[in-house]
Amino acid sequence: MNRLGYRSPATFDKDAREFYNVIHKYLMESYKGKVPLRNLSADGTLGGPFATHLHTPLVGQHFHGLGSAVEAIPGLTPFQREISILVTAAKYRANYAVAAHLVKGPAVGFAKEDIESIMEGTCPQSLGPDGVAIYKAADHLVNRPGTLPQTLYDSLLAHVGVDGTKHLIHLVGFYSYLMVVLNGFDVQAPEDAAA
């Protein structure tokens, strides 16, 4: 559930219908037709962050477009991406995002203990040199004010290159926005989130 409630496809105006069609296509392609109920119910109702964006579909269109563009930046593996997402989730503690990435983390190679360490604010050394560089930069961006120090920026460049550095910074910014939206509208993890 969320504070704005769910919108049935029968209630959509033109903007909501356009956003819904884009997200429905995205979900069907991403999950190959087997979309988890937390994102799309049997009656076609959108869940999670998509449900909140149906209340502001023009923002939702841009949100989805930005997310797709950030995802398309090369330079990070799924495992490396997940490090920065988990660090951001540890900062904001958005219920829905934490539940989703407790499931996604192991799917991209995380040990349970490493996820727990990140969620507690500790960098697991098992991440390797590139993972530690990613963790430290993401941690600074979400937990400390001011500019990312040159030493952390240079460490990112050395470990993941220019593309990976761009990807990480945009990814942390995107997920920070997403988690503020999830927290502001109190988007809860569904009961099937651990399934």
Keywords:
195 residues; mainly alpha; AhpD-like; 8 helices; 65% helix; elongated
How would you characterize the overall build of this protein?
The protein has 195 residues and is mostly helical. The protein folds into 2 domains: 63 residues, no CATH class; 110 residues, Up-down Bundle (AhpD-like), CATH 1.20.1290. 65% of the residues lie in helices and 0% in strands. The chain has 8 helices and no strands. Helix 4 runs antiparallel to helix 5. The model has no long low-confidence stretch (mean pLDDT 92). It comes from Sporothrix curviconia. InterPro entries: AhpD-like.
Number of domains: 2
Tell me what the CATH architecture of the largest domain is: Up-down Bundle
Q: What is the fold-level CATH name, i.e. the topology of the largest domain?
A: AhpD-like
Alpha carbon gyration radius: 17 Å
The helix/strand class is mainly alpha
Shape: elongated
* H/E topology pattern: HHHHHHHH
Please summarize the sheet with the most strands.
none
Count of alpha/pi helices: 8
The count of strands amounts to: 0
How far apart the termini lie comes to: 18 Å
Please indicate the percent range of residues in DSSP E strands (runs of 2 or more).
Answer: under 5%
Q: How would you name the CATH homologous superfamily of the largest domain?
A: AhpD-like
Overall pLDDT, averaged? 92
Low-confidence stretches: none
The proportion of residues forming helix, as a percent range, comes to 55-70%
Q: Return the CATH class of the largest domain.
A: Mainly Alpha
Protein name: Carboxymuconolactone decarboxylase-like domain-containing protein
Organism: Sporothrix curviconia
